[in-house]
Structure formats: C-alpha cells, structure tokens
UniProtKB/TrEMBL annotation:
Keywords: ATP-binding, Disulfide bond, EGF-like domain, Glycoprotein, Kinase, Membrane, Nucleotide-binding, Receptor, Serine/threonine-protein kinase, Signal, Transferase, Transmembrane, Transmembrane helix. It comes from Paspalum notatum var. saurae. One of its GO terms (biological process) is response to other organism. ATP binds at K554. Its main location: membrane. This is Receptor-like serine/threonine-protein kinase. Residues 525-810 form the Protein kinase domain. It comes from the Eukaryota. Residues 335-416 form the Apple domain. GO terms for cellular component: membrane. GO terms for molecular function: ATP binding; protein serine/threonine kinase activity. It is a single-pass type I membrane protein.
Length: 812
C-alpha cells in the first residue's frame, strides 16, 4: 500500500509539472493544432507549424516593406523560399495581422484591421490542422491519423508557383507566377502561357502553331492530365513529358517552380549550404519566354539576360523594361515610299515572334521588302533563308529576341533620314526601394536576377556580379562584393541590388498592379456609386472580379505623362503602414488616370467631426490624432522614400469601423530623394487646401516635410475644438487670422485652462492632459518653419500621453 501511495504521489506530481498544450498560440515544434490556435504576425520569427520530421515549416514570411505572407517553406533552406502561400500576391500588414484556426473549423488569415483576406472555407467539429512531411498543409477530422485520413482541405489542391515531390499538377490546378502560368491545355498538353491584360500567347513547348505536340514528343491522347515530381528528381506528365534532374537520385530535397521570368525549373537543395541549385530548366534559352522585354525591345542572352531597345527606339520607363520602347522618330504612316521616303534597318539573328501580317513562302528578299513597303501597318519584316525564302511582315514588334543560333534577320521600317548608327538603348531599372528614385542600373545578370527572384540563392548573386566583372574589372568586382556584404549586414543600410530587385518584383507582381480602364469601368458599374469628391478627383465604390471592395479615384487635371505617372506609382505602391490607406493599383491609359484604394467604410474625419447631428467621443479623437501622426511620421522618416503628403486635412483622414485613422491621397504627393542638406524640393504649383496650407507655399521657397506638420497642427486643433479653424471669427464677425489664433493658443498653454477651447458637444467628457498637450502641439506646428517639430517627435509625445490605464474625464 505504501508503495502504491508513493507511485500515486509521483504520478500526481509529474502531471502537475507537465506543461499543458496551448490552445491559443502555436508552438514552434507542433505539427498539429486544434481549434482556437492562432499566431500573430509579430511572432513571425517562429513557425506556426513544423512537420513531424522538421522537413517543412509554415508561418509568416517577410514579403516586403511592412508586409508578410502566410507560407510553407523547406526548414533547412537558407532563404525561406515559399512552396505555397495563402492568398498569393496580397500580403498582410506587419502589425496586427493573425493566422487563426477558428473554432468553426476554418483556417483564416486576418489583416491588421480584422478583415479576413483568406480562409480555407472549411467547417465542422473536431477538426485539426497539420503540416505533413510531404509539405502538405491539411485540415482533417481525426488528428491522430492525419497522415492517412481523408483531408477536408489541403494546400496540395491549391498550388501557387511550386510543386514538391508527390504533389500532383492536375487539370484543375495551375502554377502561376505573375503573368506566367504552367497548366494543362484543352488538348491535354502541359504548356507555358503568358497572359497579361493586353497580350496572351503560348510559348512552350513550341509557340509555332504548325508544330504539333507529337513533334515535341508529347501526345494529346490522354485524359488524366496529371504531372508529378517524384523523390528521385523525375517529373512525369501524362502527355509523355519526362524530365530528369541533373542530380538524379533519392535523398535530395527538390521543388519544381515557375519563376518570375516565365521559365520552369527544378531546384535541388544543397544540404551543406542551404542554397538552391537549378538542376533542370524547361527552356535553355530564357529569351524564349514571351513578354519579358515589352514592345519594340529585344531580349538577349550573352550569357546573362538583358533587354535592349531595337535600333531607333528608347526605353519608355527605365523602372520597368516590360513597358518596352518607344520610337525616336515619327511613325511611318504613309503607304507609298514616294510620299514618305523610308528605309530598313537590318538586325541580324533577331526576330519578333507573332503578330505577323501574313506569311509568304518561297519569295525573294526584294518581294518581301515590297510587301512591307506597301502595307501601312507593317513596322518590319522578317526574312529567312531556310531552304527557299520565307517572309513575315510584322504589325507589332513584340517578343523580340536575338540569338546567334537563329538564322533569320529582322528589317525595321524607319524614315530615310533616320541615323541607324545610333546605339540601341539598354533597359535600365530601379526596382525595389531605394533612397534615390533617379538612380538606375543596367539590367544584366541571370534571368532570375533580372526579375528579382531569390530562388536561385547564391547562384543568382554570383551571376549578377560576374555580369559586372567584364565592365568594371577585377578591382571593381571586389569593391562591389565588399560593399554588398557591408550593406546587407545592416537593416538600416540600402538593400543590396538583388534585394532591391526582389522587393520591386514583389511589388509589381504582388498586391500592387496596373489596371486597365475597362476593368475599373466594369468594377465601378460605369462609375455609378460616388463616395466623395475633391480638388484632385472623384472617388467611386467598386468591386473587383475577386469580390474585393475598393475605392476608385478618377483623377482630374493630371499633367503627368504615362512614364512619370508610372514612376511615381511604382514607388507609392510599395508603401504600407497601418495608418495609411493601402493602394492596390492604378490605371494610366491615355487621358484616364485612376487610383485603386483600399475601401474604408466609416467615411472621413470631417463627416464625424463637423457634423452637428453626431458627436465624436474624445477617446476616438485622440486615437485618430495619434494614428494620423504615426502615419505621417512613417511617410516622413521611416519610409525609404521621402514622401510629403502636401494636403493633410480631415477629408483625407479616413476612419475604420474601430475609428482607426488611415491617411488617404498620399499617392498624389510629390516624391523626392532625401537630401543630406535641406530635405526640400521644388514644386511647379501650389498644393493643398485653403485653411490648411503652410505660409511658405506663398513665399516661393523650397518645400519640405514641415508643410505637413503645419497642416497636421490645424487638424489637431480642429479635433480639440470640433470646428473648422478657418471658420473662427471675432465678435464683430471678422475672420480670425492665424497670428491671432496662435496668440489665443499661447494663452491657453500658459494658463493651462483648456476647457473653453474644447468642443462643447463633449459635455466635459474629455481628458484634460491630452487636450492641453494637443493644443501645445498644435501651437508648435503653426510656428515658423524652423521651429516646428517633426512628425516623429509629435508621435512620440502623443504616445506618451496615451500610456494610461484609464483616461480621466474632466467635468466642468
């Protein structure tokens, strides 16, 4: 009996000290979680789930500036290259976002404002979520047999851009990377497809419609339409495609990925370094992918990929070579050479695939040339001596490429007086976040480096460096390597070139995109429901094809051309903060200039603050003041581009259902690089709204971020008063000028008696300490420019005022 008592006591003690599994947050070592488990984005340094043998992990992954995605990756990889991502292309905010396995049985990803941006759409009792050693994230009904019981939902059924061993590609699934897709076509053949809003074409296995799948070793006689990568590195497809990884054999971790350059590759993980190595590629010539360089541009691989303009053309946008090139000459519009003399510039070993105006076989060169001369729409012609003579007149110059293995020649139609000796313009890019938006670098390097892909790991970096070595020499190469290592060692330094490229590509092909005017016209129901209007344009409610509700602003009086507008928007699109309205994209199509914003459904601050039928409580006012200060501080100090809003006013402060502030219209502000001296810029015209504009706008002096500080001070005072500052008058009915208002504020600060200034509708329900501090800040904001605080200083002061468990109310 004594021994039994001792054993029982030991059991009780063991049970008492054993840790209980948490149902509210995930452990880094757990591979199965029950209902109620969750993880916030702030805990992104540890995984949400890890597979039983530790092969795979899933959790929050860095996806850009203050942006994260919920993804799965190989645990041992040096870089967390995602093999699957929930809601790809639309990352969530780096603060306040959360992944939750809800008690109703659904796995859901919530953004910082509580909006569910993705969920598994499952339901039921007794469900659990598990990460298997295959890399499959599953939701099953029996947690004890998750490896064998049928899954209610699994990530393998919803691939993004990658397949892992044992994961099938089927007729119902598709791998997508940007505008590129790998899928089974209606003829049961596995194909690569380029599909942007304007152009669509198949480019693999062979883009030539006269080449049958059988000539490419495929067959259309199958109905299963499945492909799978096995553990030995063999990819087998039902159309009889078989490819072998160069390191064929078991025991290697691999993935098959469609990369941002449109090529499909098998990657193998180096167990010693954690780096990915390419062990197979669908296309030996990367320029075979369509849409890489844009219209009138030529893709070249020597041995690194680069985009160049055809002779007589220049780059439309040095930030995005996919926009192609524009002619340096007036378009040849007349059909007759007698009316407008023309000539042809020869570009050997080059062609522009597709967009043929005709096909002529067994013709002479002169006859082919005459065909193009006589056609108004002919921009060039291709002539090949392939046993006879084939002629292809070209209407549009797309999908250009140059290869020494190509035996054809393209002849470009240009004016007779055009100087054909001028060199072609190489594509330049300033992808990613950079302190100076005017800096440009020649696009050279591997095909993966060109599009900012980190999937080739260290191999991409070395290819990129070697591309410069031929130009800069050995000493410059050493300097660049040393410089990149130094910069990458500090989070505060400018990112390395490859990091810039990756960030830029994630922005362009991620949540920020370019819309067509037709898309936005359809989304808004022909601009039917107006949400508001101002000096910069009219805002309409819209619903995108995916069901996302957005606000579409049709801009008016925009003097910028497409290139300048695109340049500003590519930078603005990377800016993401909890107190800024997210910009999903834009449209720049001729005279149509539109912005697509996140929809914020609680109207703007002015509707609540100045409406006599409602009273905005003090707690919400202070929260809005603090959120607005933090948003502006981010634009002025934290954002890698220096952004001046130039029109801070209550109408541009939108409110969520929880009365969190979101600053709108910062996408219209002028961007400028940081200057070690004055941090100022010249603007061609005054910006802003009367009553909120700083005095320096009228003094013809360089404008800096202190104009926003002035405007914020006015808004802050209005939140205290509940009235427009510009509407304040004397007893005689004369409008009060700012010097008079400032004198009143000095008296309030000196006496500490803030009660007469506070909105009477609050009936004394306000925090006197906060109100006095807001008045003090407002006064400092409207001083002369050199004496104004920064938005960072203001945010810190207001944050200190917010550090109270209970906000005491002042009762008069």
């Amino acid at each position: 009996m004594a021994r039994y008592g001792v054993c029982l006591l030991a059991f009780i003690l063991l049970f008492a000290v054993a840790p209980c599994p948490s149902s509210s947050s995930a452990s880094a070592q757990q591979h199965t979680l029950g209902a109620g488990s969750s993880q916030s984005v702030e805990d992104h340094d540890r995984p949400f789930l890890t597979s039983p043998q530790g092969t795979f992990s899933c959790g929050f992954q860095d996806a850009g500036e203050n942006a994260f995605s919920f993804s799965i990756w190989y645990t041992d990889a040096a870089e967390k290259t995602a093999i699957w991502t929930a809601n790809p292309g639309a990352p969530v905010n780096g603060r306040g976002s959360r992944i939750t396995f809800r008690r109703d049985g659904s796995l859901a990803l919530d953004d910082f404002n509580g909006t569910t941006v993705w969920d598994s759409q499952t339901s039921g009792k007794g469900l659990s979520v598990s990460l298997l050693d295959s890399g499959n994230l599953v939701i099953v009904s029996d947690p004890l047999s998750s490896g064998g019981s049928p899954a209610v939902w699994q990530s393998f059924d919803w691939p993004t851009d990658t397949l892992v061993p044992s994961q099938q590609l089927t007729k119902h699934t598709k791998l997508v990377s940007g505008y590129f897709g790998l899928y089974y076509d209606n003829d049961n053949v596995l194909r690569l497809h380029y599909d942007d809003p304007e152009i669509s074409s198949i480019y693999w296995p062979d883009p030539n419609p006269n080449i049958s799948p059988f000539q490419d070793g495929r067959t259309i006689y199958n109905s299963s339409r499945t492909g799978v990568l096995d553990d030995d590195g063999v990819f087998l497809s039902s159309d009889k495609l078989r490819v072998d990884a160069a390191d064929l054999g078991p025991g290697v971790k691999r993935r098959l990925t469609i990369d941002p350059d449109g090529n499909v590759r098998i990657y193998s993980l180096d167990a010693s370094t954690g780096a990915w190595t390419v062990t197979w590629a669908a296309m030996a010539q990367p320029c075979s992918a369509h849409g890489l360089c844009g219209q009138n541009a030529i893709c070249e691989y020597q041995p690194s990929l680069r985009c160049s303009c055809a002779p007589g053309y220049e780059m439309v946008n040095h930030r995005d070579w996919r926009k192609g090139c524009t002619p340096l000459f007036t378009a040849v519009t007349n059909c007759s050479p007698a009316e407008q003399r023309v000539k042809f510039v020869e570009v050997p070993h080059s062609d522009f695939y597709g967009n043929d105006l005709g096909y002529n076989q067994s013709v002479t060169f002169e006859y082919c040339k005459k065909i193009c001369l006589d056609m108004c729409s002919c921009a060039a012609f291709s002539y090949r001596l392939d046993g006879g003579g084939t002629c292809y007149p070209k209407g549009v110059l797309l999908n250009g490429y140059t290869s020494s293995a190509f035996d054809g020649v393209i002849y470009l139609k240009v004016p007779f007086d055009f100087d054909a000796s001028a060199p072609a313009v190489t594509a330049r890019s300033t992808e990613g976040l950079a302190c100076d938006p005017n800096v440009s670098v020649t696009v050279q390097g591997s095909q993966a480096a060109l599009f900012g892909s980190s999937r080739t790991g260290n191999g991409t970096k070395w290819t990129y460096l070697f591309a410069f070595a031929g130009v800069l020499g050995v000493l410059d190469l050493v300097f660049i390597v040393t410089g990149c290592w130094f910069l990458s060692s500090s989070r505060q330094s400018m990112p390395s070139s490859l990091a810039l490229k990756a960030a830029g590509y994630r922005m362009v092909m991620g949540q920020f995109r370019r819309f067509t005017y037709r898309e936005l016209k359809h989304a808004t129901g022909n601009f039917k429901e107006e949400l508001g209007r101002g000096g910069s344009g009219v805002v309409y409610r819209g619903v995108l094809d995916g069901g996302k509700v957005v606000a579409v602003k049709k801009l008016t009086n925009v003097a910028r051309g497409d290139e300048e507008f695109w340049a500003e928007m590519t930078v603005i699109g990377r800016i993401n903060h909890i107190n800024l309205v997210r910009i999903w994209g834009f449209c720049s199509q001729g005279k149509h200039k539109l912005l697509v914003y996140e929809y914020v459904d609680n109207e703007s601050l002015d509707r609540h603050l100045f409406n006599t039928d409602r009273t905005l409580p003090w707690r919400e006012r202070f929260r809005i003041a603090l959120g607005t200060a933090r948003g502006l501080a981010y634009l002025h100090h934290e954002c890698l581009e220096w952004v001046i809003h130039c029109d801070v006013k209550p109408e541009n402060i939108l409110l969520t259902r929880e009365f969190d502030a979101k600053i709108a219209d910062f996408g219209l502000a002028k961007l400028s690089k940081r200057d070690g001296g004055r941090d100022s810029l010249e603007l061609s015209h005054m910006r802003g709204t009367t009553g909120y504009m700083a005095p320096e706008w009228a003094l013809n002096v360089p404008i800096n971020a202190k104009v926003d500080v002035y405007s914020y001070g006015i808004v802050l005072l209005e939140m205290v008063m509940g009235r427009r500052v510009s509407d304040q008058t004397t007893a005689d009915g004369e409008r009060l000028e700012m010097p008079q208002i400032a004198q009143v504020l000095r008296q309030v600060v000196a006496t500490g008696n803030v009660v007469p200034l506070v909105d009477g509708r609050l009936q004394g329900q306000f925090n006197p300490r906060q109100a006095l501090e807001m008045v003090r800040i407002s006064l400092s904001c409207v001083e002369e420019r050199s004496k104004r605080p920064t938005m960072d200083d203001i945010a810190k002061v207001l944050t200190a005022c917010d550090d109270e468990d209970e906000h005491p109310a002042y009762r008069s």
